[in-house]
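Chain A, query sequence.
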Amino acid sequence: MADECDISEIVTTFFLNTCRLPPGPSVHSVQAAIWVGLLATKHPPDDTEVDCIPLTTGSVAEFYIEPMIDYAGDIDVMYYLCSQLAIPRGHPPPSQLPAEFHNYVKVAEIIDSHLPGYVYLDFRYLLTQCIEDGKYNYFENDKKLYLGNRMSTDVDKNIHIHGPAVFTDNSDVSILLSIDTVYCVRCLSWPPQAADWPTRHRNYGWPDSATLDRVVSNGCDVVGVAHRQCKQHEWMGKHQFRLSFSRAEIVLINSWMPVQQIAYHILRFYVKTEQLTESADNSELAIMSNYHIKTLMLWACELKPRSWWTGNLNLVRICVELLKTLFVWLTDTRCPHYFINNCNLLNSSFNVRISVASKLMSIDEEYLSTWLMNNYIGQCAQLCPFYISRLFDDVSTSVKLQKAVSEIVRWRLNTSLYDMWQAVTFAELYISVNMSLFFLNVRSSVYSMNELAKIDKRFCVYFSAFALLHAADKISRKRFDDDSMDILATILGHNSNQCCSVLSLCKIELNTELVELLQKSAVEHLTTYRQLLARDFDFIVTIITTDFEAMYAYKRGDYQQCLQLSTQNVHTLLYAVDMPSVLLPEFTQLMDDDIASLTALTVITKPECRKLDYYSAIITQLTLSLYLMTQCQLKLSHLVTSLAHTLDYIEVVQRRHSREHTLDQLTLKLLECKVRRTIVH
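Chain A, predicted structure.
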């Protein structure tokens, strides 16, 4: 293999060119956005009026780079109740609160424990909001009443308690990450325990004053979990909380330079792959976690000058020096908390500490360069086509190694648009399935739309369209309620002419007219969404923009208009790469009973189609357009010669779909039978 200098340069170039900046929409960010929306609908078991306020934290929120190897092990979501608030001890209760808080709020003082960073919450005040001016009055509680650190939760086969988190296992769907949901209590003030952090002297200007102000203004959270030394204690184990700076960490890590985020990713990958975050025989608690690596990086970003990161840039050198710092910390049993003075994140009782330190002691640039080439870049090669991965069979010279790595980089750059397209098609499916299966209300709609807008504004257009179809479907089934009306007002805009028309129809209960109005509005949104997709992705897939217009024309009985649109679409798609469309009840309302029956049959006979990594209940735009074209020809009594041409189209499309595409195959078989029967007669 090439010499040490060559390898470290190749590794550095590889990471700089394959970690996308900025990434497009990702599967994980979409999953997190929808989960936040669903969590916003939850209530504590004993209070149906109190809402949860969720926040995506952890890797999905912190990283803006998109490496070839996934950086996220799961999705972390914190949530607090709008009826609870924590304040520093001795602070007066607030008279004003942000709008998300309830009109009555329990306020607890943060009381230090004997362990730095761990506290108790003493319920001291009850705030009640005054209707006249919106300000809060308080009533003092004279009795000592400490909040418990656990919220009761409904437990099913996919939900487990994992430290302070409720762990939702999604491993049965390969594309989804599992989710850690953590209960906390919101503190709007920066805690006195970290009072020195904003003002301490910094030689190199990071974080800058604007970032410092933003971090401090976000306050902190108090997470319901006891220190490991106290977990078994009868009282402390149930009442101890930990100060959480997740909001601060998101702001700080997002302010890093790309090279700093990449170094963070490399370090996390190394310690995970080498199992340094696990005990040697699983009999001990792990000596390290990702939080130790995060702390290492936060300190390095503050204590190192910008030139250390960017001058003669070498990612391997940077990571080796950081691992040496980690070695010193382990040797000295000292990992200083980044925010709290006199708080050590390492414990001398861990027997594996010296063992892990010894692994780090011998790491140099030659070792880490080779390790990354074999374990990281080699793994990336397996993601590429075979002609690229086999280049690594012989990398005995610098030239051969450089060529092999360059081919990965080239493939990565060339597939950027395709990967973004994959994330978009996933987003469509995930949004549709979750909105169809789970209860939708105003809070979930607002939270989901806000989170989706941060990822890609197109998703908000799609979300709005699906919400309108969802409402239309509920009305047609006589299930329209006040929540549905509120959702429509939110989606359409309270003051829009369209919203006024909808709400007027709601009041006089003209269900047929209301359904038609909602369907028309949804089709307009979907057509706009298709046009936005076609603008950006027509290079890799043929996207027709009038498929929903054709469906709506068919629904209205305008078969001539539907035939014109669908025939054009069939001609466009017949020999092109087309996109799938999900057919949930919200969409089948635009079709006829035959399609609805076939969709239901697919779900009944193949339950796995409900999972997001199967495509059995999805139909392609081509099959759907061919269905509409054929049905319109039959209804308009077209000549046998026209139907014969259509039969040829059907046979061409049948050959394109594998047996796994159940709904496509069933639809095409139905069309074939109908056309043959008509031709014979």
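The longest strand covers residues 118-129. The chain has a mean pLDDT of 86.
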